[in-house]
């Protein structure tokens, strides 16, 4: 795997690790210069760190964590010939467990469509579009879906 692809994959993974750890500030920082959009959301894309941070106020935390695990699969990364831009896509399955009354189960299945750019400081998100495909019980994950 090329250095660019490794850097982009690391950024994609960081997204999952940060949100699952409940690091809302760090997670929203991934979009300081980018946009985050769940397709079909009538409010449109969240652009910039503050907008993403505001949207994440709907995520329900239990002792500081959402009790989720984001699992990416079928990851495909394409880097431009210039080596300064990249696109990626993958499937996402989101699991959640809240013992004893909410056993581990998939609560969301979808598709990430990403764009990245390389700047002096490294790679960063330009955009992440999330295409919801399969919806489970999101009532314990987001307050606006309870």
Q: Main attributes?
A:
146 residues; alpha+beta; 21% helix; Nuclear Transport Factor 2, Chain: A; globular
Give an overview of the whole structure.
It is built from 3 helices and 6 strands; from the N terminus they run ααββαββββ. A hairpin with a 7-residue loop joins strand 1 and strand 2. It is α+β, with helices and mostly antiparallel strands. The chain has a 6-stranded mixed β-sheet, covered by helices on one side. It has a single domain, classed as Nuclear Transport Factor 2, Chain: A, CATH 3.10.450.50.
Q: What layout of secondary structure does this protein have?
A:
Blueprint: H1 3-20, H2 24-29, E1 35-38, E2 46-47, H3 49-55, E3 68-79, E4 85-98, E5 102-119, E6 122-135
Parallel strand pairs: 1-6
Antiparallel strand pairs: 1-2, 3-4, 4-5, 5-6
Largest sheet: 6 strands, mixed
Helix/sheet category: alpha+beta
The number of distinct helices, counting runs of at least 4 residues, comes to: 3
Could you estimate the helical fraction of the residues in percent?
10-25%
Spans of at least 5 consecutive residues with low confidence: none
Proportion of β residues? 35-45%
Ends apart, CA distance between termini: 42 Å
Mean pLDDT: 96
- H/E element string? HHEEHEEEE
The CATH C-level name is Alpha Beta
What is the CATH topology assignment?
A: Nuclear Transport Factor 2, Chain: A
